[in-house]
Amino acid sequence: MSTHPSAVPVRAMLVLGTRPEAIKLAPVARAMTTGTQFEPIVVTTGQHREMLHQMLGLLGVDVRVALDVMRSRQQLSELTARLVGELGEVMRQQRPDLVVVQGDTTTALTGALAAFYEKIPVAHVEAGLRTGVLDNPFPEELNRCLIGRIARWHFAPTRRAARHLTDEGVPAEQVFTTGNTVIDNLLWVLAEGSGTSAFRSGAKRILVTLHRRENQGERMRGMGRALGRLAERGDVEIVLPLHKSPAVRESLLPELEGRAGISLIEPLDYLDFAATLAECDLVLTDSGGIQEEAPSLSKPALVLRTTTERPEAVEAGAARLIGTDPDVIVGAATTLLDDPAEYRRMARAGNPFGDGQAATRVLAQLAEDFAADVPVTVAAPRPYSTA
Ligand code: UD1
Ligand code: UDP
């Protein structure tokens, strides 16, 4: 690949397919529209359907190519195979100068892999997150490790994430600590928008989201029973926007449908979700993105998982990793509802995930490298360490 002529915009293909990818790539897409250095080419895979469409308005740029790969109860292997094939074809047609992927989804992995096959360099946003347990979260930990072997630019949200990459042998000059673009988006939306909170009463407000594959089934049913017990206190309002996944709904609905104090609602668009988060007292979640957003709004977060790739919030004291045992969930939530000192301690811990300028840093680095008089190639300038 040759050097890039500076008068010609860099054609940057943003590949996204799920709700969190749209949210976290939106600041990058919006920033690309403010100058002439980049031409954003947005490709949606349709890994998610309704939950992705809800978020596309955030991008500030039209979708160039919309694939339609989602199938009900899709299996990872068939989704992966379909996506590599279809994305490869799109890349051959569009011939972008680089492909940008975000995070650790099947869309992100296949976007990176198809780009590698087409010899197009890859930029990875939210690089370097690790739990250190290859099958937890499943399959995301493996996905992000694999993308880490493919990417040419690694945009790590924190110094710890950057260190994971250099420890794995990624050349330090290809790793950039930027903050997480989710904070850019949250601050932008709170400044721009006027969403409507889903809470209705003056009771103590608990916002819950659950969707992880490794929690679906009996574990998630147990979490549902824990929420039922919390609602029985009578002084709480629990709002739970249900993920569209049938496996999630089958786990939670039998435990929670029709219970007083619990509102089971459809996924909220981002404006309304941000308003709901801003109004809640406490967050219970297995989501990645919400672990990052809650501390920005001074909301204590209980993480209903056995591992987290975001230990920064736990170490700062803004989040607690409490696992999936129903008794522990009820106990930890009860402490925060009833102990103002403990509540204040968590709420004041602060946000370790960025200052809202992550997308600007990503684009500045890409612009610098494409303008420099050196070829931007797929492979690292020196080989990965084999030591
Ligand atoms: C995926 C990501 C996960 C991310 C999550 C965000 C992978 C491997 N996992 O989870 O990292 O945290 O998205 O939400 O990529 N569905 C609909 N409508 C929608 C969205 C999904 O009906 O708008 C259905 C799908 O048909 C599917 C199920 O929900 O059967 C789960 O969707 P899928 O993309 O497979 O989600 P996860 O892998 O659970
Ligand atoms: N979110 C939303 N509406 C909802 C639930 C979540 O906009 O009803 C947003 C939330 O603010 C966060 C993102 O979706 O930015 C998280 O997505 P999800 O939990 O599906 O995926 P993860 O972050 O775990 O990959």
UniProtKB/TrEMBL annotation:
Keyword Isomerase part of the UniProt annotation: yes
Keywords from the named record: Isomerase
EC number in record: 5.1.3.14
Transferase listed as a keyword: no
Short name of one Pfam family: Epimerase_2
UDP-N-acetylglucosamine 2-epimerase domain segment(s): 32-366
Gene Ontology molecular function: UDP-N-acetylglucosamine 2-epimerase activity
CDD domains: GTB_UDP-GlcNAc_2-Epimerase
Domain of life: Bacteria
Top-level EC class as recorded in UniProt: isomerase
Similarity comment text for this entry: Belongs to the UDP-N-acetylglucosamine 2-epimerase family.
UniProt cross-references to NCBIfam families, sorted A to Z: wecB
Name used for this protein in its record: UDP-N-acetylglucosamine 2-epimerase (non-hydrolyzing)
Organism: Streptomyces sp. R41
